[in-house]
Amino acid sequence: MTAVPLATLPGRPCPIAAALELVGERWALLVVREIALGATHFGDIVRGTGAPRDRIAARLKALEAAGVVVRTPYQDNPPRHAYGLSDSGRALVPVLQALLTWGEVHAVSPTDPDRPRRYPPLSESARAKENR
């Protein structure tokens, strides 16, 4: 797991700032969400996030370097990898759940026609993925 020295952070350095250095980029937590929901292949993660392929490739590399995501080869020719969450990545699931709850109340209108009535349970998906 990559640690961020507090002395390298601008402003008021704290663990929140350090965490945002690792997972605060726009697509990072959406990548973690997709993996927690069971997406293991690159194309599925791209589809789930709606992000450009190059952005997801960069996020996956950064999250792997930070120890949040693990990459496992599943095919040699051409080389392909499956993605999963490390212990550190699975520890982010409650953070995602808190953001989901906050977003339902404060970020999405209750009358939004695209608002799902029920969201997939992230923690169950993460546990199911862990046991595969």
Helices and strands in order:
Elements: H1 15-23, H2 28-36, H3 42-49, H4 53-65, E1 69-75, E2 80-85, H5 87-90, H6 93-106, H7 122-130
Antiparallel strand pairs: 1-2
Q: Portion of residues in helices?
A: 40-55%
What CATH architecture label applies?
Answer: Orthogonal Bundle
- The chain-level structural class is mainly alpha
Strand content: 5-15%
As for the CATH topology, it is Arc Repressor Mutant, subunit A
Largest sheet: 2 strands, antiparallel
- First and last CA, distance: 23 Å
- Spatial strand order of the main sheet: 1-2
Count structural domains: 1
Shape: globular
Number of strands: 2
Q: Whole-number average pLDDT?
A: 89
User: Over all CA atoms, what is the radius of gyration?
Assistant: 16 Å
Please write the CATH class name: Mainly Alpha
Topology as H/E string? HHHHEEHHH
Number of helices: 7
Question: Could you describe the 3D structure shown?
Answer:
The structure is a single chain. The chain is mainly alpha-helical. The protein has one domain: Arc Repressor Mutant, subunit A (Orthogonal Bundle). 50% of the residues lie in helices and 10% in strands. A two-stranded antiparallel ribbon has the order 1-2. Helix 2 packs across helix 3. Keywords: DNA-binding, Transcription, Transcription regulation. This is DNA-binding transcriptional regulator, HxlR family. It comes from Mycolicibacterium rutilum. Pfam families: HxlR (PF01638). GO terms for molecular function: DNA binding.
